[in-house]
Design a protein that fits this description.
Elements lengths: L5 E2 L24 E8 L2 E9 L10 H5 L2 E3 L2 E5 L5 E4 L1 H14 L7 H14 L11 E10 L12 E10 L7 E5 L17 H5 L2 H9 L4 E3 L16 E6 L2 E4 L11 H12 L4 E3 L4 H9 L3 E8 L3 E10 L2 E4 L7 H14 L10 E3 L8
Helix pairs in contact: 2-3
This protein binds 2-OXO-4-methylpentanoic acid.
Length: about 350
Amino acid sequence: MKYDIKVTRTNNSRVSDVDFDNIPFGRLFSDHMFVSEYVGGQWINPRIEPFAPFLIHPGSMGLHYGQSIFEGMKASLSQDGDPMLFRPEMHGRRLNVSAARMCMPAFPEDLFLEALHMLVGMDRTWIPPKEGSALYIRPFMFANDEFIGVKTSQTYKFIIITGPVGPYYPRPVSLLAETKYIRAARGGVGDAKAAGNYGGAMLPAKLAQDKGYDQVLWLDGREFKYVQEVGTMNIFFVIDGKVITPSTDEGTILKGITRDSFIKLLPELGYKVEERPLSIEEVVDAYHSGVLQECFGAGTAAVVAHVDKIAYKDLIMELPPMEARKVGEMAKSYINALRAGKIEDKWGWIVPVKTEALVG
Ligand code: COI
């Protein structure tokens, strides 16, 4: 290992309290966390310590002006019970794309990977054994200058916490295509995993929930014409046998790593995938012509969330039932089997946790 990551182990593991057959999403936190601070132009004091709350100054800039970004990734167990990470390099790269957009310092990608291997290696008993469950990994970074003026912070904190999770959406979801609020516009921060993107989506999501929908289907910010994403996940449609997902080149849609995995693996499974602008009218026309076969969200947390209903203006599009949701189901089973080490990983997406991280 290249970096000197100081390790302080807990004397009081909480893992025996976990009911691995009944794991809610996002409420359980493993025994340890990785922490490092950015001070004087460099990342210092990388360390793994017992998971615990920490003090934060009320003037900490990350609380006020939103220089705050995160990642979401997963670790799972192989058939032999060895811990494995899913596409960790890509998450490290995307973290730094978000950091650059938010005028935050890059976190060294080799240190990011080393920290992940050590942390997941230490907390490997927290990885749920059941296929479809995983250890969710949440790296995040926030501005930490104690200052109330608006400027770029000079100090930052980078932390990785983890916790066992089950499915994010245990049931199919219903979506309301939003025609008043927007998530992202050209030139904005829609393709960064910036905390504010999620905060800004809360009111429209609540209004959609008040109308009986689970989530918002975001449309573009200029014309409310093109489908973007769901906020918690990217979106795929199956129309007349073709798999279509909105292209990300306008910089308004998060470049999802599950999205990228599906774009690569679905052609191998015999499906034609198109990445292109997709208008909501095209979805409506496909619905009226009887060729809107499937819609599903794809994301690290969600993996695949089938969509059973989409509302757009006065139209409610009921999607075909579960038996017809072949593409989404196939993509989900494939990723889950890959994560469980049950099928060959021809892309090199699965990275075994380094053996030197498994001692102790
Ligand atoms: C993820 O899929 O990992 C995400 O970060 C989305 C979400 C849980 C906010």
